[in-house]
Design a protein that fits this description.
Structural class: alpha+beta
Number of helices: 5
Order of helices and strands: EHEEHEEEEHHEHEEEEE
Largest sheet: 6 strands, mixed
Length: 193
């Protein structure tokens, strides 16, 4: 279960201070909401860690071959236009958007919303909280997002120009418009019965 620290007006961390806090506490994934709360997320369990690896591996292999952008793992924080700093389980940015960043911006939390994200619902995650996070990505410029729940074998697909679409037990996911040739095989993601 995530822990949210409501700092109120007592402590308003700058981006630099938040980055220092995150670096000093590398064993804890920390996000910052648009209103300044800190969200502390525990490390994942073995099954979730393995599923995240499968997702990152598939995205990375596709990205290496396609050469259309830059892929990121769950330890990368992105500074969204609304001020939140979020770390999706997997993310991808079109190459031209990455190239437009300064070298300094690339080293820190990139100041943009990824074009594509995947969030994997773990045992400690709350589905409505993840849905809100996906909506936040869309509101900040996300083109495509997949919210995956291995327990129920459901996927919600988020696109910036339409309401979320729920898929029941799909075998795979793909999106030729944004990610030509990328197919995420869900057989390694679904929980065994």
């Amino acid at each position: 279960m995530n822990l949210t620290l409501h700092l109120g007006t007592a402590i308003a961390l700058t981006d630099e201070q938040f980055e220092q806090l995150a670096r000093a506490n590398r064993d804890v994934r920390i996000e910052r909401s648009a209103t300044g709360e800190l969200i502390l997320m525990p490390p994942t369990g073995g099954e979730t860690g393995n599923r995240n690896l499968e997702i990152i591996t598939d995205l990375g292999i596709w990205n290496r071959a396609a050469k259309l952008g830059v892929a990121f793992d769950s330890s990368t924080g992105f500074r969204l236009p609304n001020g939140a700093i979020r770390s999706p389980d997997a993310a991808w940015i079109r190459q031209e958007r990455w190239d437009a960043l300064t070298p300094e911006d690339r080293k820190r939390f990139p100041p943009l919303c990824p074009d594509f994200v995947i969030e994997l619902c773990s045992e400690s995650d709350d589905w409505p909280v993840l849905q809100a996070k996906m909506r936040e990505y869309v509101e900040n410029g996300l083109v495509l997002g997949w919210l995956i729940d291995p327990r129920t074998r459901q996927v919600e697909v988020y696109r910036r120009d339409r309401p979320p679409e729920r898929l029941e037990n799909p075998a795979s996911l793909s999106e030729e418009g944004l990610l030509p040739g990328f197919v995420l095989d869900l057989s390694e993601i679904w929980l065994s019965e």
